[in-house]
Amino acid sequence: MTILTEQPELGLQMEEKKIISSEIDGEINELVLDGGFVVPKEISKNDGIVAQDIAVSNEAFIAPEINSFGQSFRDYNAESERHKSVEEFYRLNHIHQTYDFVKQMREEYSKLNRVEMSIWECCELLNEVVDDSDPDLDEPQIEHLLQTAEAIRKDYPDEDWLHLTALIHDLGKVLLLPSFGELPQWAVVGDTHPLGCAFDESIVHHKYFKENLDYNNPSYNTKNGIYSEGCGLDNVMISWGHDDYMYLVAKENRATLPKAGLFIIRYHSFYPLHRAGAYRHLMNKEDEENLKWLQVFNKYDLYSKSKVRVDVEKVKPYYLSLIEKYFPAKLRW
Ligand SMILES: [Fe+2]
Ligand SMILES: [Fe+2]
């Protein structure tokens, strides 16, 4: 179980080690917004299904019957304790993630001066990040990554970029580790949302924004804030976390992934957009297209947390070949 404790704002002293949690956490967004598992109805094989068709059928999820432990229901007490720690997580997230904080994080991490390693090395490193707060996921992270990637590969055999995107989408969680700055959880995981404009009501635990410095800033608290309609998400400051970090790493190391892949990595935790439809007025045409792929990806991200084990050694050569195709051998992190 995750124990979150109060901590000072990171400010410029980010390099200082701040232990804020006894355990490493992840996928908090899913715990909050999904209220359990979702599994898709039968998806037919990839006979000409395009992203749009899948995205539209997103509504057609049915309630799950079992989680990865084969349990129908979670323990009531465990559930309420979990809720409390998740709420505390979002309280800290909503207070500390300000426009200035995100700007500072982007500047700091775009230096990419911490570690040099390959994508696969990072997958293995992520195994040190154990998500004990998620009762539906007790496998090492690399299995979650491979389960997601393999599930997509089955339904979209020709979209190799999508398989690789799935494999690497959570690598940014290494921000929790000491050599990456050991950022607190509220700066790494959970749902993301824009800064520089009003906080949409659909954002989970919205009430805690009242304590955010930006909340009463007249430049930031209108519908468009500092942005204009249709400006494109590229121009929008999104709360800092593993999504934006991994996007930065991929972009700065000149990954040749298609734009939709980079979009998935960057916005997969942006639940207010892809679940609630908030902030769509800031999107441009390209974002609209990419969003369809994100919605395809997203259900595999949730669905694949199952007991279906993936033989890592067996699938490794395939993923190494994709890494070689789309990434340099060593990346700066
Ligand atoms: Fe994630
Ligand atoms: Fe994930």
Tell me what you see in this structure:
- By secondary structure, the chain is mostly helical.
- The protein has one domain (70-332).
- Helices cover 40% and strands 2% of the residues.
- The chain is built from twelve helices and four strands; from the N terminus they run H-H-H-H-E-H-H-H-E-E-H-H-H-H-H-E.
- It has helices spanning 28-34, 51-56, 76-96, 99-109, 119-125, 141-155, 160-168, 242-252, 259-267, 271-274, 285-303, 312-326, and strands at residues 116-117, 194-195, 237-238, 331-332.
- The strands form two sheets. A two-stranded antiparallel ribbon has the order 1-4. A two-stranded antiparallel sheet has the order 2-3.
- Helix 7 (160-168) runs parallel beside helix 9 (259-267), helix 8 (242-252) runs antiparallel to helix 9 and helix 9 packs across helix 11 (285-303).
- Residues 1-74 have low confidence and may be disordered.
- One fe (ii) ion (FE2) binds at residues 169-170, 242, 268-269.
